[in-house]
Specification:
The complex is a heterodimer of chains A (about 425) and B (about 160). Chain A has 2 domains: about 130 residues, Rossmann fold (3-Layer(aba) Sandwich); about 260 residues, Neuraminidase, CATH 2.120.10.30. In chain A, the strands form 7 sheets. In chain A, strands 1, 2, 3, 4, 5, 6 and 7 form a 7-stranded mixed beta sheet that branches. A 4-stranded antiparallel beta sheet of chain A has the order 10-9-8-31, with no helix packed on it. The two termini of chain A are about 50 Å apart. Chain A is mostly beta strands and about 425 residues long. Chain A is built from 4 helices and 31 strands. Helices cover about 15% and strands about 45% of the residues of chain A. Chain B is α+β, with helices and mostly antiparallel strands and about 160 residues long. Chain B has one domain: OmpA-like domain (60s Ribosomal Protein L30, Chain: A, 2-Layer Sandwich). Chain B contains 6 helices and 5 strands, in the order αβααβαβαβαβ. Chain B has a 4-stranded mixed beta sheet. In chain B, helix 5 links the parallel strand 3 and strand 4. Classes of the chains: A mainly beta (about 425), B alpha+beta (about 160). Chains A and B meet through strand 10, strand 23 and strand 31 of A and helix 1, strand 1, helix 5 and strand 4 of B.
């Protein structure tokens, strides 16, 4: 009897939902979920149909291209070729399911948008092709100038719906470019578009790092003919000197709470790691040695600091408590290991291994100790985890000049950025905006 | 969600609205300063410039991933150490450099290790730390088109410069 009542209730709820849906649609509405396990090795075939611009039948929508490129780069999706399809639906009733099944689409997205008074409004669907059900349908709107940002938000929603992992398509990256002898620290969208210069100088800029709240970048500038650490606000543009002591000031790394930074100072000796408050006060050494200790990075829980040291003769990766103490060596394979970066969940280290003359990006599982090479070199540098931990952004040298690339953490999907500059290097991935 | 959108909007507004902060090299001081002739005499700047004087030689080269000052540079290092020791007003900067292989921060540290190694050799010969600053440019000035060790070798060096020269 009870069971019967429950199912009645369920049917009633479903009916109410449908009613609500039809009344206040378009509306965020998740109808069904799809089971997906693993990434890369089992990519999802997705048909990203051109979104139709209402009142402009001849317009060639960029939106679906942005979405398809995002999803491909993530490593979890295989966007299918849809140009050859006879039927290009933008509303549910026009979907030709046999045609979608023929191109082996598992899911598809379709939609339409309109631009009125400089505002963009998109209605879009994510559909399970086999079950012929709606997985998600939403309406997004915003200033027309935010066209790409809105497309990235759709990518984020599709990605999270099908993987259960937050997407990183709306996050920002930074990198250093060198053009005609001038260096520039730039911020761009995660797909390399919307490039904005933050600071430029005739002298080198290196080691840019985002504050955990994404509002500031710490970096090292050689504008005074020696390395000095600056912090610059991305909101006001104002910049301050964090560290300008005798010798070198370099390698800033924000603590997870954003209150302190680990930095590297030399005075008149070798590189040593110090902790300093974000306002430049309260400087104190973390560890002291006569060797090189550099490239500190915090574990996400703030309890440990990973760094590079040559105390064993060659550069290797070590770990030490963020309150100091005795460092523990972590890397033993390869000739040299350097440039550490920690995954957002703290479980994986990424760093560069030099072996047989090649510098390659590896992943080091801190629980199992397993080490996996995910790039081929020969000159790969500066690996940085995406904020969701599923993609690595890094730089590599091609015929003397640097380029940026991403690789999915299973090493399967590699994608290069097409950014125009003489030389590009030193990428960093901004955090999720909180 | 709302907050993140607001922040993203703020960031975009800044990034769209503001131009980048341009840094330019400070202009070189024009004309002789009032103490220039004193410096010329006190610091014996002529000897630093004289191409026949060993003090005009300013670069010390290193092996790959090494910071050992090789025997062939002992005379050069000794001459500069003696100069610093006998000119208390002299201020020397030792700038370490590396080739462009490896990470930028590690190479910054390696360049520093080389400048510290040269400084220590000079300390033994009486040059005081107060007169020397050791810094590094790491791989930032390296030739990025090297294909053989003869080319890389030119980047692995410490350059000596003086404040008033």
């Amino acid at each position: 009897m009870k069971k019967y009542n429950l199912s009645i209730l369920k049917i009633f709820k479903a009916f109410i939902s449908l009613l609500l849906f039809s009344l206040i649609a378009p509306h965020a509405f998740a109808i069904e979920t799809i089971e997906i396990s693993g990434g890369g090795t089992k990519q999802i075939n997705i048909a990203v149909m051109p979104y139709k611009e209402v009142g402009n039948d001849k317009a060639n929508s960029l939106m679906h291209q942005i979405i398809a490129a995002d999803l491909y780069r993530s490593g979890f999706f295989r966007p299918l070729e849809v140009n050859g399809l006879i039927n290009k639906p933008f509303v549910l009733s026009e979907i030709n399911y046999p045609e979608m099944t023929a191109i082996e689409a598992q899911v598809m997205t379709l939609g339409q948008f309109e631009i009125n008074n400089n505002r963009l409004k998109v209605n879009w669907f994510l559909v399970d092709v086999n079950k012929k059900t709606i997985l998600t349908t939403m309406e997004f709107s915003g200033p027309a100038a935010q066209y790409r940002a809105i497309a990235h938000k759709i990518s984020d929603t599709i990605y999270e719906k099908l993987t259960g992992i937050p997407g990183v398509f709306s996050t920002k990256i930074s990198y250093i470019s060198k053009n005609k002898g001038r260096y520039s620290l730039n911020v761009a969208d995660a797909d390399g578009f919307n490039i904005q210069s933050v600071v430029s100088s005739p002298q080198p800029i290196i080691s840019a790092r985002w504050s955990p709240d994404a509002t500031k970048i710490a970096y090292v500038s050689f504008e005074k003919k020696k390395p000095i650490i600056y912090i610059q606000s991305l909101v006001t543009g104002q910049r301050t000197v964090l560290a300008n002591f005798k010798g070198n000031n370099s390698s800033p790394s924000w603590s997870p709470d954003g209150r302190r930074l680990a930095i590297v100072l030399t005075y008149n000796a070798n590189s040593q790691i110090y902790l300093i408050d974000a306002d430049g006060s309260n400087l104190k050494p973390l560890i002291q040695s006569t060797h090189i200790d550099t490239e500190p990075v915090w574990s996400p829980d703030g309890k440990s600091i990973y760094f590079t040291s040559d105390r064993g003769g060659r550069p290797q990766i070590y770990k030490v408590s963020s309150t100091g103490g005795e460092p523990q060596r972590l890397s033993f394979e390869g000739n040299q290991n350097l440039n550490p970066n920690v995954s957002p969940d703290g479980k994986i280290l990424s760093y560069v291994t030099q072996d047989e003359g090649r510098f390659r990006v590896v992943l080091h599982d801190l629980q199992t100790g397993q080490i996996t090479k995910i790039t081929d070199g020969p000159f790969d540098e500066a690996p940085k985890f995406s904020p969701n931990g599923h993609v690595i952004l890094y730089s590599h040298k091609v015929r003397g000049s640097g380029e940026l690339s991403t690789v999915s953490i299973d090493g399967v999907v590699h994608q290069s950025f097409n950014i125009q500059a003489d030389d590009i290097r030193e990428p960093a991935w901004g955090p999720f905006a909180k | 969600m709302k907050k993140s959108l607001l922040l993203a909007t703020l960031l975009s507004l800044f990034l769209l609205g503001c131009s980048s902060t341009p840094i330019n090299d400070a202009p070189k001081p024009s004309g002789p300063s009032s103490s220039a002739s004193d410096d010329e005499k006190d610091l014996d700047l002529a000897s630093l410039r004289d191409p026949n004087n060993i003090l005009s030689k300013r670069s010390i080269y290193f092996d790959y991933d090494k910071d050992v000052v090789k025997a062939e540079y002992k005379d050069l290092v000794a001459a500069h150490a003696k100069y610093v020791a006998s000119h208390p007003k002299a201020k020397m900067t030792l700038t370490g450099n590396t080739d462009d292989r490896g990470s930028r921060e590690y190479n910054l540290s390696l360049g520093q290790k080389r400048s510290v190694s040269v400084k220590k050799s000079m300390n033994v010969l009486g040059a005081q730390d107060t007169q020397i600053e050791t810094v590094s440019f790491g791989e930032e000035r390296a030739d990025t088109n090297c294909k053989d060790d003869a080319c890389y070798g030119k980047d692995r060096r410490v350059d000596i410069s003086y404040e008033k020269e």
